[in-house]
Write a structure and sequence with these properties.
The chain is 49% helix and 12% strand. Helix 2 crosses helix 3.
């Protein structure tokens, strides 16, 4: 086989992102300033990890990442205490969003595809920009992946190389032996390719630069097992 493992993004890749947007809209409207501050902080954290090489001022791990993120949110909202911002992020954008997944269903055909990939000898992993554990539990997918990682724990977000390097290290595989599956050309495709991985994108249209663009999960299984 051309791959030893298939790794997945979570949000918008394992389920339709429109499902989450619809459920989260009331909360977003009620906390618009906080939502905008958090979105801005995530953009700044993503920008920190952009470019070649690892900047010396980058957070070294998840603890430093979340502290820096809280600093950005606190500054945006005029909070004197970053601890207050950290609590707000945890309450609304981590734990609050996660509980919505009790009402979200994975893509049709996803579970069957994961079973087929695993049965065929491929290792399965996950790399998400947000903490994945509770989401996977509520989606009924917790037992499917041998590793479920959060990009934040590398100190930055995709498409930086560090999260993908963390994934390859956890699996003990060369990046070229991993197929990464996501839904964002800008983040998932760009990051996986820069890290030396193959990339498949969930899309109804052909995505330039992707090794595979698909919407029928059977196509992913066929591609993963095709001879190089």
């Amino acid at each position: 086989m051309r791959f030893d493992a298939v790794a997945f993004d979570l949000d918008g890749t394992l389920y339709p992102d429109s499902s989450l947007y619809r459920l989260a809209l009331p909360a977003v409207l009620g906390k618009k300033r906080a939502f905008l501050a958090f979105s801005s902080a995530r953009d700044k954290m993503r920008e920190l990890g952009s470019g070649e090489g690892r900047r010396p001022d980058l957070p070294k791990d998840g603890t430093e990442f979340r502290a820096r993120q809280a600093d950005f949110v606190a500054a945006s909202l005029g909070m004197a205490d970053s601890g207050e911002a950290a609590s707000l992020i945890e309450r609304y954008f981590y734990r609050g969003i996660e509980e919505l997944f009790a009402r979200i269903k994975p893509f049709e055909g996803l579970k069957e595809a994961l079973e087929a990939l695993s049965r065929g000898g491929l290792r399965l992993a996950l790399l998400s920009d947000l903490p994945p554990e509770r989401k996977l539990e509520l989606l009924g997918l917790s037992e499917r992946f041998e590793a479920a990682l959060c990009s934040e724990d590398s100190g930055t977000l995709k498409p930086a190389r560090a999260p993908f390097a963390m994934l390859a290290s956890r699996l003990g595989l060369a990046p070229a032996r991993i197929l990464y599956v996501g839904n964002s050309p800008r983040i998932d495709l760009r990051g996986a390719k820069a890290a030396g991985m193959s990339a498949a994108i969930v899309s109804r249209r052909r995505v330039r630069g992707a090794d595979l663009s698909f919407f029928d999960w059977k196509e992913l299984v066929e591609y993963a097992f095709a001879q190089a």
